[in-house]
Write a structure and sequence with these properties.
InterPro entries: ANTAR, CheY-like_superfamily, GAF, GAF-like_dom_sf, GAF_ANTAR, WH-like_DNA-bd_sf. Keywords: Kinase, Transcription, Transcription regulation, Transferase. GO terms for molecular function: kinase activity; RNA binding. The radius of gyration is 29 Å and the shape is elongated. By secondary structure, it is of the alpha+beta class. It contains nine helices and five strands, in the order ααββααβαββαααα. About 35% of the residues are buried. The longest helix has about 55 residues. It folds into two domains: about 170 residues, Beta-Lactamase (2-Layer Sandwich); about 70 residues, Arc Repressor Mutant, subunit A.
């Protein structure tokens, strides 16, 4: 392996591992993966499919327009090495796509028509979780070199860890935002209870009961009513009306 290729490989692994950046874009990330695969693995094209939220598989990136069409066609026909790869979580190889029309009737014919003679699909997986597949395509029939497959699997593994890591961070941020929003709503409700307690001469428990009762009668969210009351947009006497009626009686 030449020094230049060593440097390219090192730079690729560093790039694939760095997903914790503020402007991370998964499509750009996978596009880089396919481009580097072509540069480093002695193949002519590459593509990636990923699992979607509905349990299906969708093309996510490709090194060229033609390889992108092949991945789209594979997803549409649910045939081809990439689909078999994500179903099994294992490497799937076709050294001669023209001879694989029985295994993948529609896909093989389309891929050959697009100018490809061989394909190799590498699973993107971490333990039992398969998130997609990296497909390597050659214009000529024949095997993808074993060291290219090994290196391709290493690239796919690093990319998979990076994507899952980014997803975990995103989920954590969403949970944190939800928690902060919940705490903020709790604070607003406490403020509204204080307004009612002061204006109506009631304790905090009764203030909460009145606040909740007003929200339910008017079919509104408790936090929305509390916010308007705390901001002075809602007159406290409207919320205190049931208490005033009881006291008057």
């Amino acid at each position: 392996m030449s020094n230049t290729r060593d440097q390219q490989l090192a730079a690729t692994f560093v790039s694939l591992a760095d997903t914790l950046v503020a402007d991370f874009d998964v499509l750009d990330f996978l596009g880089m993966l396919t481009e580097r695969a072509v540069e480093l693995l002695r193949v002519d094209a590459a593509g990636v499919i990923l699992a979607d939220q509905r349990g299906g598989w969708r093309p996510a990136a490709a090194s060229s327009e033609t390889s992108g069409l092949v991945e789209v066609f594979a997803a549409q026909t649910r045939q081809g090495p990439c689909l078999d790869c994500v179903r099994t979580g294992r490497l799937v190889v076709s050294e001669d796509l023209a001879a694989d029309t029985e295994r993948w009737p529609q896909f093989a014919a389309f891929a050959v028509g697009a100018g490809f003679g061989a394909a190799c699909a590498i699973p993107m997986r971490l333990r039992d979780e398969v998130i997609g597949a990296l497909t390597l395509l050659k214009t000529a029939s024949g095997p993808v070199e074993p060291d290219s497959i090994s290196l391709g699997q290493a690239l796919a593994d690093v990319a998979t860890i990076g994507i899952l890591q980014q997803r975990a961070v995103t989920r954590h941020e969403i949970v944190s935002e939800q928690l902060q929003a919940t705490l903020h709503r709790r604070t607003v409700i406490e403020q509204a209870k204080g307004v009612l307690a002061e204006r109506g001469g009631v304790d905090m428990h009764e203030a909460y009961t009145l606040l909740r009762g007003y929200a339910r009668v008017n079919r509104r969210r408790l936090s929305d009513v509390a916010g308007e009351l705390a901001n002075g947009e809602l007159d406290a006497t409207q919320v205190l009306a049931p208490h005033a009626d009881t006291r008057g009686a």
